C-alpha cells in the first residue's frame, strides 16, 4: 500500500513539473534570430538579362551579358514609385561602359566585391540610403564581336564561348513570414 502511495505521489510530481516547464517555455519570449529577421525584412527584386556593348575607339568590341538582382528593404520599396529594372539597367550601363570597371584584357584583376559595393552604393544614392541591402550577380559574361558575328553568319567557325567574369547563382527568395 505504501508503494502504491509513493508511486502516485511520484506521478503527480512529475506531471506537475512537466506542466510547469511546458507553460514556462510557451510563455518565454522567443529567441529572435537576427539573420532570419533581417532576411524577412528583405525582398528580392529580380534583374533581367541585359546585353551591354563594350565600346572602344568608337567601335563595338563585344558585349557584356549580365543578370543582376537586388535584395531591397520591403518597407522602403513599398513607397518607391520608380521602375527598379530600368534603374538597374542604367546603373549597369554606367559601370560597365562609362566607368570601365571590367578590363577584358585582364579578367583576373576584376574585383567582384568592389563591383557589388559600387552598384549598391550608387543605387542607394539614387533610391535612398538603405534601400539596396545586397547585390546578387547571377551572370556577368563577355562575348566578343567576332564570336557574335561568326554565330550570326553561320560560318563553319565554331561559336565562341562567353568569357565567364562572374559565376553566380539565382537568388533564393527570403523566408516568408505568416503576415
- Look at the structure and give the mean pLDDT: 77
Radius of gyration: 28 Å
Structural shape: elongated
Strand segment count: 5
Beta fraction:
15-25%
Encode the helix/strand succession as letters.
HHEEEHHHEHE
Based on secondary structure, the structural category is alpha+beta
- Kindly state the percentage of residues in helix: 40-55%
Largest sheet: 5 strands, antiparallel
Tally of separate helices: 6
Span between termini: 57 Å
What does this structure look like?
- The chain has 179 residues and is of the alpha+beta class.
- It has helices spanning 2-27, 34-40, 74-78, 84-98, 112-127, 145-153, and strands at residues 42-45, 50-56, 59-73, 132-144, 163-167.
- Strands 1, 2, 3, 4 and 5 form a five-stranded antiparallel β-sheet that branches.
- Helix 4 packs across helix 5 (112-127).
- The longest helix has 26 residues, at 2-27.
- It is elongated and about 100 Å long.
- The model has no long low-confidence stretch (mean pLDDT 77).
What are the salient characteristics of this protein?
179 residues, alpha+beta
List the helices and strands and how they pair.
Layout: H1 2-27, H2 34-40, E1 42-45, E2 50-56, E3 59-73, H3 74-78, H4 84-98, H5 112-127, E4 132-144, H6 145-153, E5 163-167
Antiparallel strand pairs: 1-3, 2-3, 3-4, 4-5
